[in-house]
Specification:
The complex is a heterotetramer, with two copies of chain A (308 residues) and two copies of chain B (246 residues).
Chain A (H helix, E strand, L loop, with lengths): L5 E3 L2 E3 L3 E3 L21 E3 L16 E4 L2 E4 L8 H14 L4 E5 L4 H13 L4 E5 L3 E2 L5 E2 L4 H14 L3 E5 L7 H10 L4 E4 L3 E11 L2 E12 L4 H12 L6 E3 L6 H9 L4 E4 L2 H4 L3 H15 L5 H9 L2 E2 L1
Parallel strand pairs in A: 3-4, 3-16, 4-7, 7-8, 8-11, 11-12, 12-15, 15-16
Antiparallel strand pairs in A: 1-2, 5-6, 6-14, 9-10, 13-14
Chain B lengths: L4 E11 L4 E7 L11 E4 L8 E4 L2 E3 L2 E7 L3 H7 L6 E8 L10 E6 L4 H12 L4 E7 L11 E4 L6 E2 L6 H8 L3 E5 L2 H13 L3 E5 L15 E6 L2 E6 L6 E3 L6
Parallel strand pairs in B: 8-9, 8-12, 9-10, 10-11, 12-13
Antiparallel strand pairs in B: 1-2, 1-7, 2-6, 3-4, 3-7, 5-6, 13-16, 14-15
Classes of the chains: A alpha/beta (308), B alpha/beta (246).
Bound molecules: flavin-adenine dinucleotide (FAD) (2 copies), flavin mononucleotide (2 copies) and FE2/S2 (inorganic) cluster (2 copies).
The site of one flavin-adenine dinucleotide has 22 residues of chain D, from strand 4, strand 6 and helix 1.
């Protein structure tokens, strides 16, 4: 028997395959494709205090081996989540992580308090949101504002606190340490890479242009994510949940080998909507075949892999 | 629960004109799909599946008409009989199917879902009239009750929009249904509104999830007196002409 | 007749297609594939004061729509360049830009002086090199060290001074402004995106691992480059030479549309070694067909393209 | 100057065993290529061209033997007769071709360039002996003067390295030439050195430019008394066994 389970502080997961925020809905929406209960944990779409309508214009743009999105955090807001989505998660026994976002520290704190009160076991802070108090620079790109944000949330939340880092920084180490020092229980990385898609049409001597400036995700960013995780793993001790272009079991093993404790599947859910479930099965079969009885065993073996 | 993932086997693939192909495939797991709904095809090497309306569904065989545009449709047009094809279906909502007198108006590849709708409407006993506009004779796809071409090489000359009033006057429909480029849909919606005729239009938008969760494909609609987001992939692709905020 | 020429300050180019540093050799090496004389300008491999042997181990790793390199600046050094490569460039009339690199400001200054003395008309500063004086952080990621570096080089060099920016920064705007304020004549962007490739083998119950941590280039990074160029174009007035995943004429037009004045072709030279020459022809034909008589005309039209 | 870019047309493609394919193509622009040299094939969707040794070049027809490993070789094995193929050639240096008595030792797919070399050496009047090692009977590729398989299912049992001394003693070569996995080349080089026999080996390394400029494929060699970088793509792939720093 293979034991795929793991604990992030007190938060228990049956397996290390998590579905990433924004790519899997709020609750059981993917059940039309996949057995959602089997997923290690579903990270909800980023939720804000109030509902948001998101950005105008084209929101999605496919690129070579990836895609750009500028959804702009359209979401139903925390109250609707509690009323309509939380009951489904609870009734169907879906393990989940609440992804929260805001424009000011207070927004995050308030959401964390609500999560705490509702006994939500894990939250993930999306710190790639523009911080209104510092001229719309992302919270997650400045170690000081990040430290402050995470500390404040920590004070208001007793469950598993995961900080999701942005790769759009000069120093991954600095922001990762800020999260750890502020007492986060885990880091998840990476959020999308800033990117832009341009589509030109040339009609009757005039160019027409569509631009989609947002976050790049998918296979194209896997090398960026591997580098980021590898670097922060060298400086922090808290567990890292890795993501960025994961499509296959081999991808997962690669991230384990640079120190990831669990992984998230994002864009791949769009390409192969049943992929998360398939990867759990593949991981289990791999471990069975090669006689790894626990995730620790596999991960240790991978971290200690001989360099060639 | 029957999942929406299917694997099909290509039964036929034919090039209809310079840019348009017809492809037929079936999958034992796909039991039903209705006019207006669409499927989403996995294309090798691409991140996003590509959405296509159902042009027919008969005896378990699904037919799609598609126009070659970029990498996705290039991949599909390169498939051979016997190749397997992965797709999600059924996705989206449907056109209303009843016995109302319906004028169907397509433009270009937008005619695809109208063939299937027309068939189903007739099965319900509805009187229908299928009109379509194309650029030129070589683009015309199938048989219609009325055709116009921009260059006049087939049927009447001009845009299909030029003939809206005449078509309405002659056929006197209870409902207009259309699938066409957005600019054409906008005109049709407004003409239908001015005649106080029900109007259903099928919209397009780049999609990622196909089930309403990524919020990548939203348009604005006016419902219950307020403007709100609706997803083309799940709340649509079929909308009432008058509810769409252009 | 179509005029593809442009001037970057006093530096003249017959056309805006430049081949990127590290992907085209020092001089005429690509003549086995391409008519090198026709290229707008060839940027030399990054050259240091002394010859360098570069990194040990695997240096190249293919990724989805891209590649990672960790060549580690292997190069023949400035003296050999002057002796062996410069004469070829001069004799064959190849327009070129000298790409220089160093670990300390003095290295750059010395190289710039040598360039000046040898009447080399344009140099490109590779500021993605580790700065020995600040704990091996790249020069190009800190606006102050970048400003200082560029100012010092400016003092010693009278030709066209191009600063090549690294995308691995929190704020593209800050570094671009630093380069402009230090009196650079042009900016080129982007250098490679930090990334890592991991290859795992599982043999006899043991994992073996190869990692290649270095710079990601190719189609995968085009969205990152478009975003970077778009952002800096909004804050600087000096011309921008854009690069990152350019493979087609449409790619070039996309970069023009976000403000680029010229482009560099890097990784694409490996995939299609005659691509630079082909793109010049395609650009010329496009302009001819659509009656653009100068590059300015085309670029203005593109910048003013209507948004849809 | 004749450029090194060519477009060929596939004349034949055959699967030789479970993993290995043979492909033949010709290009009017490729006039000559010598044993040891290689070509670099453009594979759709991939950034880097894939290098392959020439297994034969006869009457303008180039033959390559390749083992399916990843995306590149998968793409090539999917090509059909008549498809076109873009490649760069000739690249790299060559084995020495003269009339010296030569022992050729291949292992696995490494035998590919030795077939062409063997043919050319014989044309020069050299006496040759072609030995090869494989994992198992099903991996054996072509005809050899001596074969060993790891599992003993064909020829002698064991690694080809186990038979080096015997082969040298029996054939008494003036030169040993080898193409094989790096571990095998290392052993062969050292055995050759101990017997003071000239030794040429063909190395492999991941490549980008193929012409020595990107410095992506360097190995260390000892030349003129000092250790220096040499590119496998241009200074190689053929090196003297004793000069390589392992
Ligand atoms: C509900 C719906 C039904 C459709 N039905 C048909 C049909 O029956 N026949 C037909 O020929 N076409 C249909 N389309 C359009 C079809 O999806 C696009 O032509 C196709 O995706 C183009 O892909 P490509 O890779 O060939 O071209 P690309 O070069 O990738 O794109 C060309 C254009 O196609 C559109 N497109 C690209 N990717 C997507 C995506 N993931 N989702 C939606 N649109 C995209 C964009 O507008 C893009 O600019 C439908 C679209 C929708 C949304
Ligand atoms: C000079 C030379 C001659 C060769 N001759 C032959 C031959 O005759 N027959 C044959 O089967 N193989 C030959 N090879 C090996 C062949 O190039 C690789 O097997 C092939 O590139 C694998 O590509 P892939 O995409 O199928 O596999 P991938 O999954 O991409 O790679 C598998 C392994 O192949 C190697 N490889 C990948 N890309 C490259 C590259 N751009 N350059 C070099 N190696 C790469 C790497 O070691 C990699 O780990 C030769 C290699 C070299 C350098
Ligand atoms: C359409 C879309 C929406 C996303 N929305 C969110 C979000 O609301 N909150 C968040 O933290 N990350 C969001 N992300 C980022 C993903 O969770 C993930 O970090 C990123 O896509 C990288 O992983 P991937 O390459 O596997 O997709 C979104 C990504 C996509 C593609
Ligand atoms: C193999 C390789 C070597 C490179 N060497 C240098 C270098 O020496 N100096 C430099 O400024 N940039 C160097 N670059 C970066 C490129 O010039 C270019 O900025 C980058 O690759 C992005 O463009 P691309 O996607 O078109 O390749 C190198 C890139 C590659 C792939
Ligand atoms: S495609 Fe995801 S919401 Fe419509
Ligand atoms: S592949 Fe570029 S130097 Fe060898």
């Amino acid at each position: 028997m293979v034991d795929l389970s793991l604990k992030l502080n007190e938060f228990e997961l049956d397996n290390p395959i998590i579905t990433a925020s924004g790519t899997y809905g709020y609750s059981n929406e993917f059940e039309v494709f996949c057995d959602v209960q089997k997923i290690g944990a579903v990270v909800t779409k980023g939720i804000t205090k109030e509902p948001r309508l998101g950005n105008d214009g084209q929101r999605i743009f496919e690129t070579s081996s990836g895609m750009i999105n500028r959804i702009g955090l359209e979401n139903v807001g925390i109250q609707t989540f509690l009323k309509e989505k939380l009951p489904i998660l609870q009734e169907q026994g879906i393990n989940f992580i609440l992804n929260i976002a805001g424009s000011a520290i207070d927004d995050y704190v308030e959401l964390a308090k609500i999560a705490d009160k509702n006994k939500i076991k894990a939250i993930e802070l999306n710190v790639s949101c523009p911080n209104v108090h510092s001229g719309c620079i992302e919270f997650g790109v400045n170690k000081d504002s990040l430290y402050k944000l995470v500390s404040k949330v920590r004070d208001s939340y007793s469950g598993c606190l995961i900080v999701k880092l942005s790769p759009n920084v000069t120093s991954p180490e600095e922001v990762a340490l800020a999260a750890e020092n502020a007492d986060a229980d885990a880091i998840s990385a990476i959020n999308t890479v800033r990117g832009m898609g341009v589509k030109l049409d040339f009609v009757n001597g005039q160019f027409k242009k569509t631009t989609v400036a947002g976050g790049l995700s998918g296979k194209a960013i896997k090398p960026v994510a591997l580098s980021f995780v590898d670097r922060i793993h060298k400086v922090v001790d808290i567990p890292i949940i890795a993501m960025g272009g994961i499509y296959t079991l081999v991808d997962i093993l690669e991230f384990f080998s640079v120190g990831a404790r669990a992984v998230q599947i994002g864009t791949a859910n769009f390409t192969h909507p049943d992929i998360a479930q398939k990867l759990i099965i593949e991981l289990e079969e791999f471990m069975q075949k090669h006689k790894f009885s626990t995730l620790d065993e596999l991960q240790n073996k991978l971290k200690e892999a001989e360099y060639v | 629960m029957q999942k929406k993932n299917h694997t099909g086997k290509i039964g036929a693939i034919t090039q209809i004109n310079k840019q348009v192909y017809s492809i037929e495939f079936s999958s034992p797991t796909l039991k039903s799909i209705n006019p207006g709904q669409y499927i989403s095809i996995l294309c090798e090497g691409l991140t996003l599946r590509r959405p296509f309306s159902v042009a027919d569904f008969d005896n378990g065989v699904l037919k799609v008409l598609f126009k070659q545009k970029g990498k996705g449709t290039e991949y599909i047009s390169g498939l051979k009989v016997g190749d397997s094809i992965e797709f999600s279906a059924p996705l989206g909502n449907t056109f209303t199917i009843d016995d109302k007198k319906t004028l169907l108006i397509g433009a270009g590849i937008g005619v695809a879902p109208l063939f299937y709708l027309n068939k189903k409407l007739k099965e319900e006993g509805a009187e229908t009239f299928l009109a379509a506009g194309f650029l030129s004779k070589e683009d015309v796809l199938g048989d219609f009750d009325f055709v116009s071409t921009d260059d006049g090489t087939f049927g009447e000359k001009g845009s299909i929009c030029d003939y809206l009033e005449t078509l309405i006057k002659d056929f006197v429909p209870d409902r207009i249904v259309s699938c066409a480029p957005s600019a054409v849909l906008r005109i049709i919606s407004s003409v239908a509104k001015s005649h106080k005729i029900d109007c259903e239009i099928a919209m397009e938008k780049v999609m990622a999830c196909g089930i309403g969760i990524c919020r990548g494909c939203v348009i604005e609609v006016r419902r219950d007196g307020k403007v709100q987001n609706a997803t083309v992939c799940k709340d649509g692709p079929v909308f009432k002409g008058e509810e769409v905020v252009w």
